[in-house]
Amino acid sequence: MTGANSFQVSGYGPERAGWTRLFARDSVARRLDWPILLAALALSMTGTVLVYSATRNRTELNQGDPYYFLVRHLLNTGIGIALMIAIVWIGHRTLRTAVPLLYGASLFLILLVLTPLGSTINGAHSWIKLPGGFSLQPSEFVKLTIILGMAMLLATRVDAGDKQYPDHRTVLQSLGLAVVPMLIVMLMPDLGSVMVMVIIVLGVLLASGASNRWVFGLIGAGTVGALAVWQLGILDDYQINRFAAFANPELDPAGVGYNTNQARIAIGSGGLTGSGLFHGSQTTGQFVPEQQTDFVFTVAGEELGFVGAGLIILLLGVVLWRACRIARDTPDLYGTIVAAGIVAWFAFQAFENIGMTLGIMPVTGLPLPFVSYGGSSMFAVWMAVGLLQSITVQRPMSA
Amino acid sequence: MTNIPETGRNPRVQIRLVVIQILVLSLLGTLGGRLWYLQIRQGDEYAKEASGNHVQQVVQPAVRGSILDARGVALADNETRLVVSASRTDLLKMKDDGEAVLTKLAGVLGMKPEEVREKVRLCDAKTPQPCWNGSPYQPIPITDEATPKQALQIRERAEDFPGISAEPQAVRRYPSPGKANTAQVLGYLSPVTDDEITKAQDTDSPYLRSDQVGRSGIERQYDKALRGKAGVTRYEVDNLGRVIGEAESDPAQPGDNLVTSIDSRVQRIAEYELNEAMKAARKEFDRNTGTNYKADSGAVVVMEAKTGRIVAMASNPTYDPNAWVGGISAADYKKLTGKDSNYPLLNRAIQGQAAPGSVFKVVSTSAAVEAGYDFDGSYDCSSAYNVGGQVFKNFESANYGPINLGRALEVSCDTVFYRLAHQEWKKDGGMNPKKPHDYFYKAAHQFGLGEETGIDLPNEVTGRVPDRQWKQSYWEANKDAWCKTGKKDGSYVEKIAYENCIEGNKMRAGDAINYSIGQGDTLVTPIQMATIYAAISNGGTLYTPSIGKAVVSADGKQVDPIKPTSHGRLPISKETRDKMDAALAGVATNGTAAWRFEGWPQDKIPMHAKTGTAEVYGKQTTSWFATYTKDYSIVMTISQGGTGSGASGPAVRNIYDALYGVQEDGAIDKKKALLPQPQKALPKVKTDGTIAAPKISEDPVKDQQATEKDEYAPLDDQDQGATVPNQDAGDRRTRRRRRGPGRNRKRRILA
């Protein structure tokens, strides 16, 4: 495990790096995956504009300041980028030693949500109110720590050369590690996040090389579990209604179907080039609820049209494509698993978020990575980018 | 950097990573495809839907136009009232469907909770009135008589009364000027139904959910003109209804005013006199049935003879049209439509039909002349006419000997017409007709009977001319029933049924004979008779009766007069008309109606009249009285009321007295005359919408009676010049009262 300190060993600490050294061959800057970085940055900046467009008239939300959300979104992005830099600096391998600590911390936070400190937003009791108007959604960080935790468990013995693939015992342990926070999140209930976590677990197991039986077993168990949840009435009515409305929004156009319907109208009315930034009548008229967070994609759809909304999908595609490349190019299993887990996370969350605004997925409260307003999500995704970058940076130069 | 293990590069992991990559790619592809489908393929549809999202219509209802009488007095107008209404949509959002709110509201309004609940429930097949018949999306009025205090209580505690509003609204009002009720002529309004909204959607005058629609009478006939056009302002709004965009607006156009030919004073007197006549008739004993007359219903029409315009039209029993305003109550609705109500909503002047009896003889007379009989010929007015063992008696078996057709009209001799009709029937081939002339039936059609007069009121009925064609179709419709119940030697009814079964499709001698004096299956409406007698007065033109005289815009700038129209001419020569005219004058001077026109200034205002007493099987006789001067034609009828002159005579005389200002002694007091000549000029509607109307007296009937009393007060200098001092004033004073049973009985012979 000597590679854990390779960042420092290589002597490229950013505090000592001058500009010339920064861009020298083999420098950190040259080794960074710039497409991911630029795409993520572009998405965050697009998000800033869209969030501003959606909130500048919502005086009941922005407390009279049209730039309230814009400023905060930029601030969140800045903090996110800082977190990314910190992770690149520390290095994902060094962080590996701190994974139990991070996992424990995230578990503590989501348990805290269940105490009176937690608060409910839009039917999900998944927030912790912080002083100064900030609030924290720990389930966003749990996604990250599940990836890290599972990767650590699954890769340790393989990376050590003991085994070619993780054995059953290790897989079981890693599943247990994932299931505990998932159960807590389900209690909140934040079903969207649970769905994302299930997909993450699936992606992680796939990438770990665990036996096919585990992979298919998990898919089967997930299906059975979903059916059981549906049948046993564990879900609240509003959750079932959301499902029904996605399938047929006309069922209840004033109630649950309203979101779906208005979102679809907003996107559909955008046409090829959209109504122009700040000129969407659906957006200006505030017909789409939660438009700065979960339904931010509708702003793009209406005001930027097929061109703009398509570009967002394309940028997400760049991030995901590069992340896949990183997963494949990383020599060690730990890096591979982490990258693949992040791919599964981003891909599913983006698909679910955009899919629900397009009416092909049920409505759940999931943010669109980089674009949606929301600090916790922004921090988490930029931290994930930091992990990806760290994996790239520490990869040996290709032979 | 070789210290990093190559564990991630084993083939299984690599293959799976490719699978993940492909999956991710396909997910993104799905999103792109779906995005393309929504935005490019279906984009137009959604764009349309989006634009509908953002436009809110704010509707300013148009003020409904007033209905004015000939002098500009409002018969129907609007007043501002505090209306408390409930929004069903809001109530149904509550857990208890608004039960608690309605109960609380009932407390504030001083109503029973039950009453309030009934008002807001929707009408359907199983729900009896009261219920809401209008659109469920429109606020439902609970009361339009809220006091300002009640309205304040509701508005100040809006949070306690969600879905309830209390606002001033223009509400239809039927002020009954000078007690002229005019109910059936005016009609009433009720809320527009969903069906009507759908039907009128694409026409040039669509309905609003809040609209009231004319349901009968003038309100219905002239609904389009009166309704005006609601103003619509379109705002671009956000999801909370806040205005974010420019407004485009169509201002409301108030409805036009309708000037009618009704004179509210004459109308009041007609209504009053009709009711008095019916009350009087109920005190009369009917020898035929052994009970007092029932006088269950009646109608009177006062028509301008030279234009067909209606000056007054009354139908009894009547009702208060204000009962409909703001939603009708259960009790009121039952009163108006229940089994025991005797249907006061019916306008019997145009919807009541009965056998005309002797007032029909003008038709028979002209038919006889048309058939070639000399008006001045000599015809035997025997006491009875015998056909094949069946005896057709003259009224009260009177015998006048040989008389001409004019005298036959004057004394209303039945046997003269029996004989003529029977001869014509025989000429036409009797029971085996060969190309029959049917002069008597043809004449009826030419007089406009058996069809609507075309008056500008909805649902006029046609009456019936029992000609061969009708007999055939009636027989075809009923023969099965007749043949089933008919018995050759059964009761009277069974015998009739038997005869009808055998030969009900044929015109029998008895049919032709009965028909000639307006009996049998003949049915006419008062408006038809008024039209006919007006035509005789004006020289033969059948004017289409009309109530609307002009449509005047709310600002008075646009005046569209409604011109009199005719729908035919009487089939009589000027000579025959003049002879008939003289004969009908004779009826008023020395015929069956003479005793009702005692002291009438015949030299100044020639009066013409014809009485009718129609027999109805199983009922008491129908009283008919048809009259005309050169200006007016007045027809009155009372069902089960007795004889023509007996029951209806005094009332008609009193109406004429009021019209012309004829005093007890026959003198004409022009100052007291309400309408010696038909009103020609239209009232003036000023640009601000107000109407220059004369002052309305409290009750024209009282004025008329007071006039008479004034005469007897010699202190009144002004009146003395106009009226001739009279020695036996006391005697005349009692004349009105004396039109009682005693005299009626003596004179019945003439009816």
UniProtKB/TrEMBL annotation, chain A:
It is found in: Membrane. It catalyses: [GlcNAc-(1->4)-Mur2Ac(oyl-L-Ala-gamma-D-Glu-L-Lys-D-Ala-D-Ala)](n)-di-trans,octa-cis-undecaprenyl diphosphate + beta-D-GlcNAc-(1->4)-Mur2Ac(oyl-L-Ala-gamma-D-Glu-L-Lys-D-Ala-D-Ala)-di-trans,octa-cis-undecaprenyl diphosphate = [GlcNAc-(1->4)-Mur2Ac(oyl-L-Ala-gamma-D-Glu-L-Lys-D-Ala-D-Ala)](n+1)-di-trans,octa-cis-undecaprenyl diphosphate + di-trans,octa-cis-undecaprenyl diphosphate + H(+). The keyword ATP-binding does not apply. It comes from the Bacteria. It is an enzyme of class 2 (transferase). GO terms for cellular component: cell division site; plasma membrane. The chain crosses the membrane at residues 34-55, 67-89, 101-121, 194-210, 215-233, 304-321, 333-351, 371-393. InterPro entries: Cell_cycle_FtsW-rel_CS, FtsW/RodA, RodA/MrdB. One of its GO terms (biological process) is regulation of cell shape. It is a multi-pass membrane protein. Keywords: Cell shape, Membrane, Transmembrane, Transmembrane helix. Pathway: Cell wall biogenesis; peptidoglycan biosynthesis. The keyword Transmembrane helix applies. This is peptidoglycan glycosyltransferase. It comes from Streptomyces fumanus.
UniProtKB/TrEMBL annotation, chain B:
Residues 679-751 are annotated as: Disordered. Residues 696-712 have a biased composition (Basic and acidic residues). It is a single-pass membrane protein. Keywords: Cell inner membrane, Cell membrane, Cell shape, Cell wall biogenesis/degradation, Hydrolase, Membrane, Peptidoglycan synthesis, Protease, Transmembrane, Transmembrane helix. Its main location: membrane. Residues 60-246 form the Penicillin-binding protein dimerisation domain. One of its GO terms (molecular function) is peptidoglycan L,D-transpeptidase activity. Residues 733-751 have a biased composition (Basic residues). Pfam families: PBP_dimer, Transpeptidase. GO terms for biological process: cell wall organization; peptidoglycan biosynthetic process; proteolysis; regulation of cell shape. PANTHER family: PEPTIDOGLYCAN D,D-TRANSPEPTIDASE, PEPTIDOGLYCAN D,D-TRANSPEPTIDASE MRDA. Belongs to the transpeptidase family. This is Penicillin-binding protein 2. It comes from Streptomyces fumanus.
